[in-house]
Amino acid sequence: MALWPKIYVFRCCRERCVCDLWFFSACLNSSVPLKSTTMKIIADTNIPFVKECLSSIGDVTTIGGRQITAEVVKEADILLVRSITRVDEPLLGESSVKFAATATIGIDHIDQQYLAANNIGFAYAPGSNANSVAEYIVAALLALAKKHRFTLAGKSIGIVGVGNVGSKVEAKCRALGMNVLLNDPPLARKTSDLKYLPLSDLYDCDFITMHTPLTRDGQDKTYHLAGTEFFSSLKPGTFFLNSSRGPVADTKAVTEALASKRLAGIVLDVWENEPDIDPHLLLKAELSTPHVAGYSYDGKVAGMIMIYKAACEHFGLTPSYTAEDFLPAPAIPAIEIDPDSAPGQTIIHDTVQQIYTINRDDFNTREILLQPPDQRGAFFDQLRKEYPVRREFQNTNITGTAADSDLGRTLSGLGFKL
After folding, report:
1. How confident is the model at residue 404 (pLDDT cuts 50, 70, 90)?
2. What is the separation, in whole angstroms, between the first and last Cα of the chain?
3. Is 245 a catalytic residue?
4. Which residue is catalytic, options 82, 211, 224, 245?
5. Catalytic pick among 291, 349, 376, 391
6. 40-124+299-325 homologous superfamily
7. Is the pLDDT of residue 79 over 80?
8. Is 274 among the residues known to form the active site?
9. Radius of gyration of the chain (CA)
10. 401 pLDDT band (50/70/90 cuts)?
Protein backbone atom coordinates (compact mmCIF):
# COMPACT_ATOMS: atom_id res chain seq x y z
CA MET A 1 0.00 0.00 0.00
CA ALA A 2 1.29 3.47 -0.87
CA LEU A 3 2.47 5.66 1.99
CA TRP A 4 0.56 8.88 2.70
CA PRO A 5 2.62 12.04 2.44
CA LYS A 6 3.36 13.82 5.69
CA ILE A 7 2.26 17.26 4.51
CA TYR A 8 0.00 18.39 1.71
CA VAL A 9 0.51 21.84 0.24
CA PHE A 10 -1.97 23.36 -2.20
CA ARG A 11 -1.68 26.90 -3.50
CA CYS A 12 -4.86 28.32 -4.99
CA CYS A 13 -4.95 31.71 -6.63
CA ARG A 14 -7.29 34.31 -5.17
CA GLU A 15 -9.33 34.55 -8.38
CA ARG A 16 -9.95 30.80 -8.98
CA CYS A 17 -9.79 28.30 -6.12
CA VAL A 18 -9.16 25.34 -8.40
CA CYS A 19 -6.86 22.54 -7.27
CA ASP A 20 -5.02 20.31 -9.70
CA LEU A 21 -6.87 17.01 -9.18
CA TRP A 22 -4.16 15.05 -10.97
CA PHE A 23 -1.57 16.49 -8.60
CA PHE A 24 -3.84 15.71 -5.65
CA SER A 25 -4.22 12.10 -6.78
CA ALA A 26 -0.52 11.74 -7.39
CA CYS A 27 0.21 13.01 -3.90
CA LEU A 28 -2.09 10.47 -2.32
CA ASN A 29 -0.34 7.62 -4.13
CA SER A 30 3.17 8.90 -3.64
CA SER A 31 5.58 7.18 -1.31
CA VAL A 32 7.73 10.34 -1.09
CA PRO A 33 6.66 12.86 1.58
CA LEU A 34 6.02 16.37 0.28
CA LYS A 35 8.19 19.14 1.68
CA SER A 36 6.45 21.88 3.62
CA THR A 37 6.45 25.28 1.99
CA THR A 38 8.07 28.04 4.06
CA MET A 39 6.37 31.40 3.77
CA LYS A 40 8.33 34.04 1.92
CA ILE A 41 8.37 37.46 3.58
CA ILE A 42 9.47 40.75 2.00
CA ALA A 43 10.07 43.53 4.54
CA ASP A 44 11.29 47.12 4.54
CA THR A 45 14.83 47.19 5.85
CA ASN A 46 13.91 50.17 8.08
CA ILE A 47 11.74 47.96 10.30
CA PRO A 48 14.11 47.07 13.17
CA PHE A 49 14.63 43.41 14.04
CA VAL A 50 12.10 42.38 11.39
CA LYS A 51 14.36 39.61 10.15
CA GLU A 52 15.21 38.31 13.60
CA CYS A 53 11.56 38.32 14.65
CA LEU A 54 9.69 37.26 11.50
CA SER A 55 12.17 34.48 10.73
CA SER A 56 10.20 32.52 13.31
CA ILE A 57 7.39 32.20 10.75
CA GLY A 58 9.13 32.38 7.36
CA ASP A 59 12.10 33.30 5.21
CA VAL A 60 12.63 37.07 5.45
CA THR A 61 14.23 39.25 2.78
CA THR A 62 14.76 42.91 3.69
CA ILE A 63 14.95 45.64 1.08
CA GLY A 64 14.68 49.43 0.96
CA GLY A 65 11.12 50.70 0.87
CA ARG A 66 11.51 52.44 -2.48
CA GLN A 67 13.05 49.30 -3.98
CA ILE A 68 10.01 47.13 -3.18
CA THR A 69 8.60 46.51 -6.66
CA ALA A 70 6.07 44.18 -8.26
CA GLU A 71 8.90 41.87 -9.32
CA VAL A 72 10.31 41.79 -5.79
CA VAL A 73 7.00 40.77 -4.19
CA LYS A 74 5.81 38.43 -6.95
CA GLU A 75 6.50 35.21 -5.03
CA ALA A 76 5.99 36.65 -1.53
CA ASP A 77 3.36 35.48 0.94
CA ILE A 78 3.77 38.40 3.36
CA LEU A 79 4.68 42.04 2.67
CA LEU A 80 5.74 44.36 5.49
CA VAL A 81 6.33 48.04 4.72
CA ARG A 82 6.69 51.48 6.22
CA SER A 83 5.23 54.74 4.92
CA ILE A 84 7.20 55.14 1.68
CA THR A 85 5.93 52.04 -0.13
CA ARG A 86 2.62 52.34 -1.96
CA VAL A 87 0.70 49.07 -1.52
CA ASP A 88 -1.88 48.71 -4.27
CA GLU A 89 -2.81 46.75 -7.39
CA PRO A 90 0.23 47.82 -9.46
CA LEU A 91 2.44 46.38 -6.71
CA LEU A 92 0.47 43.27 -5.79
CA GLY A 93 -1.62 42.48 -8.86
CA GLU A 94 0.63 39.66 -10.07
CA SER A 95 1.84 38.56 -6.63
CA SER A 96 0.97 35.72 -4.29
CA VAL A 97 0.84 38.03 -1.25
CA LYS A 98 -1.79 36.90 1.25
CA PHE A 99 -1.05 39.37 4.05
CA ALA A 100 0.28 42.94 3.97
CA ALA A 101 1.06 45.24 6.87
CA THR A 102 2.60 48.62 7.53
CA ALA A 103 4.60 49.25 10.70
CA THR A 104 3.22 52.80 10.86
CA ILE A 105 0.22 54.62 12.27
CA GLY A 106 -0.58 56.24 8.92
CA ILE A 107 -2.27 54.20 6.18
CA ASP A 108 -2.70 56.68 3.33
CA HIS A 109 -0.13 54.67 1.33
CA ILE A 110 -2.29 51.53 1.53
CA ASP A 111 -5.12 50.76 -0.90
CA GLN A 112 -7.32 49.01 1.63
CA GLN A 113 -10.17 48.54 -0.82
CA TYR A 114 -7.93 46.60 -3.17
CA LEU A 115 -6.64 44.41 -0.34
CA ALA A 116 -10.15 43.65 0.92
CA ALA A 117 -11.48 42.92 -2.57
CA ASN A 118 -8.69 40.39 -3.11
CA ASN A 119 -8.86 38.70 0.29
CA ILE A 120 -5.44 39.96 1.33
CA GLY A 121 -5.14 40.34 5.08
CA PHE A 122 -4.06 43.75 6.35
CA ALA A 123 -2.74 45.24 9.58
CA TYR A 124 -1.08 48.44 10.72
CA ALA A 125 0.32 49.82 13.95
CA PRO A 126 -2.00 52.49 15.36
CA GLY A 127 -0.48 54.32 18.30
CA SER A 128 2.88 52.56 18.06
CA ASN A 129 4.91 55.72 17.54
CA ALA A 130 2.44 58.26 18.91
CA ASN A 131 4.53 58.93 22.00
CA SER A 132 7.63 59.34 19.85
CA VAL A 133 5.96 62.08 17.79
CA ALA A 134 4.68 63.79 20.94
CA GLU A 135 8.21 63.82 22.37
CA TYR A 136 9.45 65.28 19.08
CA ILE A 137 6.97 68.15 19.46
CA VAL A 138 8.10 68.75 23.05
CA ALA A 139 11.75 68.87 21.94
CA ALA A 140 10.86 71.26 19.11
CA LEU A 141 8.88 73.61 21.35
CA LEU A 142 11.68 73.73 23.91
CA ALA A 143 14.28 74.37 21.19
CA LEU A 144 12.19 77.23 19.76
CA ALA A 145 11.71 78.70 23.24
CA LYS A 146 15.43 78.66 23.93
CA LYS A 147 16.34 80.14 20.55
CA HIS A 148 13.77 82.95 20.74
CA ARG A 149 14.00 83.39 24.51
CA PHE A 150 10.38 83.00 25.56
CA THR A 151 8.58 80.93 28.16
CA LEU A 152 6.24 78.17 27.00
CA ALA A 153 4.01 78.32 30.08
CA GLY A 154 1.03 80.48 29.23
CA LYS A 155 1.57 80.27 25.46
CA SER A 156 -1.30 78.88 23.39
CA ILE A 157 -1.03 75.91 21.05
CA GLY A 158 -3.65 74.67 18.62
CA ILE A 159 -3.61 70.94 17.93
CA VAL A 160 -5.24 69.92 14.65
CA GLY A 161 -6.08 66.22 14.90
CA VAL A 162 -6.51 64.70 18.34
CA GLY A 163 -6.11 60.98 17.75
CA ASN A 164 -3.36 58.77 19.16
CA VAL A 165 -0.68 61.37 18.49
CA GLY A 166 -2.59 64.58 19.07
CA SER A 167 -3.94 63.43 22.43
CA LYS A 168 -0.41 62.69 23.65
CA VAL A 169 0.78 66.08 22.38
CA GLU A 170 -2.10 67.64 24.30
CA ALA A 171 -1.08 65.97 27.56
CA LYS A 172 2.57 66.96 27.25
CA CYS A 173 1.77 70.56 26.31
CA ARG A 174 -0.51 70.86 29.33
CA ALA A 175 2.36 69.53 31.46
CA LEU A 176 4.45 72.43 30.10
CA GLY A 177 1.77 74.86 31.30
CA MET A 178 0.55 75.77 27.83
CA ASN A 179 -3.02 76.70 26.92
CA VAL A 180 -4.23 73.96 24.58
CA LEU A 181 -6.96 74.31 21.95
CA LEU A 182 -8.19 71.27 20.05
CA ASN A 183 -9.62 70.80 16.57
CA ASP A 184 -10.87 67.44 15.30
CA PRO A 185 -14.11 67.54 13.26
CA PRO A 186 -14.65 63.73 13.17
CA LEU A 187 -14.26 63.50 16.94
CA ALA A 188 -16.46 66.56 17.42
CA ARG A 189 -19.28 64.87 15.48
CA LYS A 190 -18.74 61.52 17.19
CA THR A 191 -18.57 62.79 20.77
CA SER A 192 -20.40 66.15 20.68
CA ASP A 193 -17.69 67.27 23.10
CA LEU A 194 -17.42 71.05 23.09
CA LYS A 195 -13.66 70.88 23.69
CA TYR A 196 -13.27 70.20 19.97
CA LEU A 197 -13.35 73.64 18.42
CA PRO A 198 -13.77 74.91 14.86
CA LEU A 199 -10.46 75.40 13.09
CA SER A 200 -11.05 79.16 13.04
CA ASP A 201 -10.90 79.21 16.86
CA LEU A 202 -7.25 78.16 16.65
CA TYR A 203 -6.11 81.02 14.41
CA ASP A 204 -5.01 83.21 17.33
CA CYS A 205 -2.73 80.56 18.84
CA ASP A 206 0.99 81.11 19.29
CA PHE A 207 1.66 77.64 17.84
CA ILE A 208 -0.30 75.34 15.57
CA THR A 209 0.73 71.72 15.17
CA MET A 210 -0.73 69.27 12.65
CA HIS A 211 -1.53 65.66 13.59
CA THR A 212 -4.09 64.57 11.03
CA PRO A 213 -4.08 61.64 8.62
CA LEU A 214 -3.78 62.50 4.93
CA THR A 215 -7.15 62.33 3.16
CA ARG A 216 -7.68 63.72 -0.32
CA ASP A 217 -11.47 63.85 -0.46
CA GLY A 218 -14.56 63.72 1.68
CA GLN A 219 -15.98 65.93 4.40
CA ASP A 220 -12.74 65.98 6.36
CA LYS A 221 -10.23 66.28 3.53
CA THR A 222 -6.81 67.20 4.91
CA TYR A 223 -4.85 67.52 1.67
CA HIS A 224 -3.54 71.13 1.71
CA LEU A 225 -5.65 71.83 4.79
CA ALA A 226 -2.91 74.27 5.72
CA GLY A 227 -3.18 76.34 2.56
CA THR A 228 -3.33 80.00 1.58
CA GLU A 229 -6.62 80.71 3.38
CA PHE A 230 -5.40 78.93 6.51
CA PHE A 231 -2.13 80.86 6.76
CA SER A 232 -3.67 84.22 5.89
CA SER A 233 -6.08 83.74 8.82
CA LEU A 234 -3.37 83.19 11.44
CA LYS A 235 -2.30 85.98 13.70
CA PRO A 236 1.13 87.35 12.74
CA GLY A 237 3.97 85.65 14.56
CA THR A 238 2.54 82.13 14.75
CA PHE A 239 4.85 79.11 14.72
CA PHE A 240 3.67 76.26 12.47
CA LEU A 241 4.65 72.63 13.05
CA ASN A 242 3.88 69.67 10.79
CA SER A 243 4.78 66.11 11.70
CA SER A 244 1.74 64.41 10.16
CA ARG A 245 2.00 64.11 6.37
CA GLY A 246 3.74 66.51 3.99
CA PRO A 247 0.76 67.23 1.69
CA VAL A 248 -1.35 68.36 4.67
CA ALA A 249 0.50 71.67 4.19
CA ASP A 250 0.74 73.41 0.81
CA THR A 251 4.43 74.12 0.22
CA LYS A 252 3.71 77.24 -1.84
CA ALA A 253 1.37 78.62 0.84
CA VAL A 254 3.91 77.92 3.60
CA THR A 255 6.62 79.72 1.62
CA GLU A 256 4.38 82.74 1.04
CA ALA A 257 3.37 82.86 4.72
CA LEU A 258 7.03 82.94 5.72
CA ALA A 259 7.82 85.66 3.19
CA SER A 260 4.93 87.83 4.42
CA LYS A 261 6.01 87.38 8.06
CA ARG A 262 2.63 85.86 8.86
CA LEU A 263 4.61 82.97 10.32
CA ALA A 264 7.35 83.49 12.88
CA GLY A 265 8.83 80.15 11.93
CA ILE A 266 8.15 76.57 10.87
CA VAL A 267 9.13 73.13 12.12
CA LEU A 268 8.84 70.48 9.43
CA ASP A 269 9.37 66.76 9.78
CA VAL A 270 7.24 65.87 6.77
CA TRP A 271 7.39 67.34 3.28
CA GLU A 272 5.57 67.33 0.02
CA ASN A 273 7.22 65.18 -2.66
CA GLU A 274 9.45 63.22 -0.29
CA PRO A 275 12.27 62.38 -0.72
CA ASP A 276 12.73 65.25 -3.18
CA ILE A 277 11.90 68.01 -0.74
CA ASP A 278 11.82 71.75 -1.42
CA PRO A 279 15.34 73.11 -0.73
CA HIS A 280 14.04 76.67 -0.21
CA LEU A 281 11.68 75.50 2.53
CA LEU A 282 14.44 73.42 4.08
CA LEU A 283 16.63 76.51 4.21
CA LYS A 284 13.89 78.61 5.82
CA ALA A 285 12.72 76.13 8.46
CA GLU A 286 13.54 76.77 12.10
CA LEU A 287 13.88 73.02 12.55
CA SER A 288 13.94 70.51 9.70
CA THR A 289 13.99 66.74 10.04
CA PRO A 290 13.68 63.87 7.51
CA HIS A 291 10.33 62.33 8.49
CA VAL A 292 11.68 60.84 11.72
CA ALA A 293 9.39 62.29 14.40
CA GLY A 294 8.02 58.81 15.00
CA TYR A 295 11.41 57.11 14.77
CA SER A 296 12.06 56.43 18.44
CA TYR A 297 13.47 52.95 18.87
CA ASP A 298 10.65 52.09 21.25
CA GLY A 299 8.05 53.13 18.68
CA LYS A 300 9.68 51.29 15.79
CA VAL A 301 10.00 48.06 17.77
CA ALA A 302 6.40 48.41 19.00
CA GLY A 303 5.21 48.81 15.41
CA MET A 304 7.18 45.76 14.32
CA ILE A 305 5.73 43.62 17.11
CA MET A 306 2.18 44.77 16.32
CA ILE A 307 2.35 43.67 12.69
CA TYR A 308 4.24 40.48 13.65
CA LYS A 309 1.44 39.49 16.02
CA ALA A 310 -1.15 40.38 13.38
CA ALA A 311 0.62 38.17 10.83
CA CYS A 312 0.71 35.30 13.33
CA GLU A 313 -2.99 35.71 14.02
CA HIS A 314 -3.80 35.82 10.30
CA PHE A 315 -2.03 32.51 9.66
CA GLY A 316 -3.08 30.85 12.91
CA LEU A 317 0.40 30.87 14.45
CA THR A 318 1.53 31.47 18.02
CA PRO A 319 3.82 34.51 18.47
CA SER A 320 7.24 33.76 19.93
CA TYR A 321 8.38 37.30 20.76
CA THR A 322 7.35 40.50 22.51
CA ALA A 323 8.85 43.99 22.31
CA GLU A 324 10.90 43.34 25.44
CA ASP A 325 12.89 40.71 23.54
CA PHE A 326 14.38 43.42 21.31
CA LEU A 327 14.62 46.61 23.37
CA PRO A 328 18.12 47.18 24.80
CA ALA A 329 18.83 48.85 28.12
CA PRO A 330 18.62 52.65 27.84
CA ALA A 331 21.88 54.53 27.33
CA ILE A 332 20.79 57.06 30.00
CA PRO A 333 18.82 55.21 32.68
CA ALA A 334 18.82 58.12 35.14
CA ILE A 335 19.40 61.88 35.30
CA GLU A 336 20.02 63.65 38.60
CA ILE A 337 18.55 67.13 38.72
CA ASP A 338 18.95 70.03 41.12
CA PRO A 339 15.86 72.28 40.73
CA ASP A 340 17.82 75.26 42.09
CA SER A 341 20.58 75.03 39.48
CA ALA A 342 18.76 76.99 36.74
CA PRO A 343 15.31 78.23 35.70
CA GLY A 344 12.81 75.39 35.37
CA GLN A 345 12.37 75.60 31.59
CA THR A 346 16.14 75.60 31.11
CA ILE A 347 16.44 72.42 33.18
CA ILE A 348 13.59 70.81 31.24
CA HIS A 349 15.20 71.75 27.91
CA ASP A 350 18.59 70.41 28.96
CA THR A 351 17.05 67.20 30.32
CA VAL A 352 15.13 66.55 27.10
CA GLN A 353 18.23 67.31 25.04
CA GLN A 354 20.12 64.53 26.84
CA ILE A 355 17.56 62.04 25.56
CA TYR A 356 16.69 63.57 22.20
CA THR A 357 18.88 66.22 20.56
CA ILE A 358 16.52 67.52 17.90
CA ASN A 359 19.06 70.12 16.76
CA ARG A 360 21.36 67.30 15.66
CA ASP A 361 18.61 65.95 13.40
CA ASP A 362 18.13 69.46 12.02
CA PHE A 363 21.85 69.85 11.36
CA ASN A 364 22.04 66.50 9.55
CA THR A 365 18.97 67.28 7.45
CA ARG A 366 20.44 70.56 6.25
CA GLU A 367 23.33 68.62 4.74
CA ILE A 368 20.86 67.78 1.97
CA LEU A 369 21.60 71.27 0.64
CA LEU A 370 25.27 70.32 0.24
CA GLN A 371 24.44 67.39 -2.04
CA PRO A 372 24.17 67.59 -5.84
CA PRO A 373 20.50 68.16 -6.73
CA ASP A 374 20.11 64.71 -8.27
CA GLN A 375 21.40 63.03 -5.08
CA ARG A 376 19.35 64.91 -2.50
CA GLY A 377 16.47 62.46 -2.50
CA ALA A 378 18.82 59.54 -1.89
CA PHE A 379 20.47 61.45 0.96
CA PHE A 380 17.06 62.10 2.54
CA ASP A 381 16.35 58.36 2.46
CA GLN A 382 19.81 57.60 3.81
CA LEU A 383 19.19 59.82 6.84
CA ARG A 384 16.11 57.76 7.62
CA LYS A 385 17.79 54.42 7.00
CA GLU A 386 20.79 55.25 9.18
CA TYR A 387 18.84 57.05 11.89
CA PRO A 388 20.53 56.53 15.28
CA VAL A 389 18.89 54.82 18.23
CA ARG A 390 16.62 57.26 20.06
CA ARG A 391 14.93 56.06 23.23
CA GLU A 392 11.81 57.59 24.75
CA PHE A 393 11.66 59.63 27.96
CA GLN A 394 9.94 56.78 29.81
CA ASN A 395 13.22 54.84 29.95
CA THR A 396 14.94 57.49 32.10
CA ASN A 397 14.44 58.09 35.82
CA ILE A 398 14.68 61.58 37.32
CA THR A 399 16.58 61.51 40.59
CA GLY A 400 17.70 64.11 43.10
CA THR A 401 15.67 66.74 44.91
CA ALA A 402 13.78 67.59 41.70
CA ALA A 403 11.90 64.29 41.87
CA ASP A 404 9.61 65.67 44.57
CA SER A 405 8.91 69.13 43.20
CA ASP A 406 6.82 70.98 40.64
CA LEU A 407 9.70 70.56 38.22
CA GLY A 408 9.68 66.81 38.80
CA ARG A 409 5.94 66.67 38.22
CA THR A 410 6.38 68.55 34.92
CA LEU A 411 9.03 66.10 33.80
CA SER A 412 6.74 63.26 34.84
CA GLY A 413 4.00 64.80 32.71
CA LEU A 414 6.39 64.74 29.75
CA GLY A 415 6.97 61.02 30.27
CA PHE A 416 10.04 60.73 32.49
CA LYS A 417 9.92 58.40 35.49
CA LEU A 418 10.41 59.74 39.00
Report:
1. confident
2. 72
3. yes
4. 245
5. 291
6. NAD(P)-binding Rossmann-like Domain (3.40.50.720)
7. yes
8. yes
9. 24
10. confident
